């Protein structure tokens, strides 16, 4: 296998078209076809199904796509490492949570961009379960997320700080009249929660399940800003990072309920794969993050 063949394969797999791949790479279509056929002959398997001028990856093709993407990414990283400037033409793909990105990371990004203006930063928002897969596939370089302390043995975890959480409701909600709110008080209440893969949502639901509590309904919303709007409109209550709602609490638009249930113990964490190559750009980002956020 040659790198040019892998690049042709990955480009074709992304575009699902030999013609579009030829245009993107500046090759004749016959060159694309020949390179794919050579690769299939070497591997002894079909990489694409071809039917009525349409193509799609076979199961073997999907497996090769994962490895080929990693090979090309590592090749690009190697070129970056061997250039005259360690950070020249570098890029980072960072997975993170919306509330961290909005309220905790701006100073980190500003400092990093000031010191290393040539590094391209790509931000990716997803669920923690998806992030673990991305780290293992090397499709993100590093993860900054909120949740219970990561215990995966193949992931390196640095706890940055504890993130205070708040169970919040609109002014006038019946629970705002209580001196204490426990999981049992959530019984029969309407909840507005983050996506199913959100770590602190899973913790909250686990607490309620252990207490034998069933809410009247759950509205799942991926955006914290939309969740806050719905709470203010009286649609229900939610569990959110305190930093994401402190302005609304200060303005009396939301009320932090006096939660006396189990502690949430949510941590902001920096995570990367144990076998991840720590490029100069990535090491610099880790250093800036520790400088600005680590307790």
From TrEMBL:
GO terms for molecular function: DNA-binding transcription factor activity; transcription cis-regulatory region binding. Pfam families: HTH_1, LysR_substrate. Keywords: DNA-binding, Transcription, Transcription regulation. Gene3D superfamilies: 3.40.190.290, Winged helix-like DNA-binding domain superfamily/Winged helix DNA-binding domain (1.10.10.10). Residues 1-58 form the HTH lysR-type domain. It comes from the Bacteria. SUPFAM superfamilies: Periplasmic binding protein-like II (SSF53850), Winged helix' DNA-binding domain (SSF46785). Belongs to the LysR transcriptional regulatory family. This is Transcriptional regulator, LysR family. It comes from Dendrosporobacter quercicolus.
């Amino acid at each position: 296998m040659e790198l040019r063949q892998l690049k042709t394969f990955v480009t074709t797999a992304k575009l699902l078209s030999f013609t579009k791949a030829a245009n993107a790479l500046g090759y004749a279509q016959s060159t694309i076809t020949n390179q794919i056929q050579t690769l299939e002959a070497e591997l002894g398997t079909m990489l694409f199904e071809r039917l009525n001028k349409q193509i799609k990856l076979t199961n073997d093709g999907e497996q090769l796509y994962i490895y080929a993407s990693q090979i090309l990414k590592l090749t690009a990283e190697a070129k970056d490492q061997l250039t005259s400037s360690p950070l020249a033409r570098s890029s980072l793909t960072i997975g993170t949570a919306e509330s961290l990105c909005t309220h905790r990371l701006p100073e980190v990004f500003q400092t990093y961009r000031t010191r290393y203006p040539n590094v391209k930063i790509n931000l990716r928002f997803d669920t923690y379960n998806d992030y673990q897969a991305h780290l293992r596939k090397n499709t993100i370089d590093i993860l900054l997320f909120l949740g219970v302390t990561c215990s995966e043995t193949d992931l390196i975890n640095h706890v940055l700080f504890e993130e205070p959480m708040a169970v919040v409701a609109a002014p006038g909600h019946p629970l705002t009249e209580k001196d204490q709110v426990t999981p049992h008080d959530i019984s029969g209440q309407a909840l507005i929660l983050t996506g199913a893969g959100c770590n602190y949502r899973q913790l909250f639901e686990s607490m309620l399940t252990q207490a034998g509590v069933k809410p009247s309904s759950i509205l799942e919303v991926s955006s914290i800003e939309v969740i806050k709007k719905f709470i203010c409109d009286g649609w229900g209550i939610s569990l959110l990072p305190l930093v994401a709602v402190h302005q609304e609490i200060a303005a009396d638009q939301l009320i932090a309920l006096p939660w006396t249930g189990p502690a949430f113990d949510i941590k902001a964490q920096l995570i990367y794969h144990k076998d991840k190559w720590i490029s100069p750009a990535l090491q610099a980002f880790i250093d800036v993050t520790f400088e600005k956020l680590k307790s």
